[in-house]
Amino acid sequence: MTRTTKLTVSTLLGLLISLPASSAQTAAQSASTVRLGYFPNLTHAPALVGLERGTFQKALGKVKLDARQFVSGTTLTEAFAAGQIDIAYVGPGPAINAAGRGMPVQFLAGASEAGAVLVARKDSGIKSYRDLGGKSVAVPSLGNTQDISLRHILNENDLKSRTDGGTVTITPIAPADVLAAFAARRVDATLVPEPWGAALEAQGHKVIGTEKTVWRDGKYPTTVLIVNTKFAQANPALVTAFLKAHADTVAFINRSPAAAQTAVNAQLLKLTGEKLDPRVLQRAFARTRFTTALDPAALREYAALNVEAGYARSAPDLTPFLRK
Amino acid sequence: MTTANRSTDLSPTSGQPSRWRVLSWQVAGLLIILGLWWLVTDVLKVYPPYVFPGPKAVWTEVSYGLWGTGPQDGKLLGAIGGSLRRVLTGYLLAVLLGGVVGLLMGAWLPLRATLGAYLTGIQSVPSIAFVPFAILFFGLNEQAVLFVVILEGFIPVALAVSGALLNVPPALRVAGRTLGARGLGLTLRVLLPASVPNVLTGLRTAWSFAWRALVGGELLIAGVKSLGEQLEIGRNTANVALVLATIIIIGVIGGLFDTLLRAAEARVRRTYGLEVQS
């Protein structure tokens, strides 16, 4: 054997041996930690408020809560696929994609509805959806919930993205960076979840699509609660406890919006180092609805929009992924 | 030079393995890799398909993406077109710019001593490191990608041209002078033709640099048809099969162009008598 052959053979052997060890070591028998994923957005307020008030940790008792912040559904789905997250607040877009690819995902409950707005830069000349032709529009990330909604809006207004042979440039920019992108005139409009829409509005930019005109008169999920199926099977009591804490938090948000807004701002300050003007937060709250209900019909329609947007070839049957 | 040696290795006359034998081994190697891949993913199911899909799933993405006829199909074909147009534009501009800068550096010591040294330094910076700057300077658009491609492509060309000019055998220089060539005439009619083999090596390096810089840039700048965008979409929609399909296409295109340039290089080297066939 030459040196190279030896090297190749040993590398291949090493690879084969290491394969089973590294594959999908998710959820052990009974967990000592619950790993939670969420974003620093108002549409994830149940996560933010629950963390700020300690509701989740209280419900889990001795089991430790490990909350991790993500900036987009993409990275969260990757963490989910790698078995690094057990429960997550995420947009229906990435969740449906994950289900469609056969990831062990179970839809637990709804978290928020509507709460995404289309904002145009004040000097962009955009006054309605139809004016988006030839402009560039930012979304949090390609294939995410807002991107899918935007492509549907374009479709309904006889517009297309540039990559589909149309004139609208769709650019992924993290919502927190859209303020800077507007200031630098790098994009003309954006479809963002709250509170970023209200924050842009506070700087004089114009909301041209409210949470109600984006889709389905505002009766669409923006954030849902999902769990790793294997984790749910191994830890039914933990999942039930978490769901209860989630429901309590949503009830608290709806009962005491002012206190909830204070809690959200406290968490945002911890996560992003920035606090929002209470008036901005109030406006953003008014455009978002918090509920634990999850309409399967809305999810199915979302899956169909996902196909329309070109992100999947067929809509998956979501029934096996819903919690009974 | 390893590149030169390889082409002689493959020649049937040198007592080395024949071209067909090498080709059959290459095909066999490919089949073995595909077989192992299939074994690990589809038979043993070591990984879940959303982490590491099998060859069949990747082939489905390739076929839908290249010759599928559905409303959302054929996207990889569009992406290849966009990326190729972008890289060829960038590469052509890089070669022009690199040629001019290389000529100037070869002719003028102060430029060679300053710019030449800096270019070597810049070349060691990974192309992806320039992307944030390019985005700030040009915006989130094609110009930013082109900037990075040109920057990466022109340096090897400039260094190869100036190096090649300086390495022209003194005898040729003297002969040119004796025959009456002076200044620019000497450079263009004697030195430059004599440098062609070395310049070609630079062009080939420039191609691989430009191709890598392109995909890196496209990954960060969406909104245009590109292979980078397909990678990003595959990632964002948990479609690992699309990611792998795109990676394979990037590799195949990069390899094909490299083979073409390698063949041109070998041909020129033979013409110049640098490659002796037994």
UniProtKB/TrEMBL annotation, chain A:
Coiled coil: none
First-listed, main subcellular location of the protein, grouped into a coarse class: membrane
Annotated signal sequence range: 1-23
Start and end residues of each Solute-binding protein family 3/N-terminal domain: 33-256
Keywords: Cell inner membrane, Cell membrane, Membrane, Signal, Transport
Gene3D superfamilies listed in its UniProt record: Periplasmic binding protein-like II
Compartmental location: Endomembrane system; Periplasm
Keyword hit for Membrane: yes
Family per similarity comment: Belongs to the bacterial solute-binding protein SsuA/TauA family.
Protein name: ABC transporter substrate-binding protein
Species in which this protein is naturally found: Deinococcus aquaticus
TrEMBL record, chain B:
Main location: membrane
Membrane topology of the entry: Multi-pass membrane protein
Domain ABC transmembrane type-1: 80-261
Assigned keywords, A-Z: Cell membrane, Membrane, Transmembrane, Transmembrane helix, Transport
Compartment annotation: Cell membrane
Protein origin, superkingdom: Bacteria
CDD domains named in the record: TM_PBP2
Membrane-spanning intervals of the chain: 20-40, 91-111, 118-138, 144-168, 240-261
Family, per entry: Belongs to the binding-protein-dependent transport system permease family.
Annotated protein name in UniProt: ABC transporter permease subunit
